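User: I'll paste a sequence; please echo it back and then give the predicted structure.

Assistant: Echoing your sequence first, then the prediction.
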Amino acid sequence: MKVIFDTSFIIYLLEKPSNVLDRIVDEIGTPEITVPKSVIVELEKLSKKRKIIKNYRLLRVESFEEFNKNADDDILKLALKTKYPVFTLDLELARRLSDLGLPCYTLSNDKIVSCATHKR
């Protein structure tokens, strides 16, 4: 299944030892991670400051066309276009996705929960 991971979710997967990715695989199978080019640009910038982030290349991320270079706006546009579920830790992005009725998931106590039902 194709999914969209935002920058914060990718960083969490790389920096926090957890079984979140295993839970995603259990729920939906091995995800095909799709991100707009602006997320790749953010990860590249961050990888210069934080060594572990360089490992994002191991996630087999498929870059999608660039829309306007703002990662959150691009994720929103990509989700509107494709209807792929978005995994994010960004509260504002989660709210925007939920307001539009788009599938969105976040983490609560290391568990995957729907953004629509989870209010932090």
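The domain at 2-114 is CATH 3.40.50.1010 (Rossmann fold). The first helix runs from residue 7 to 15.
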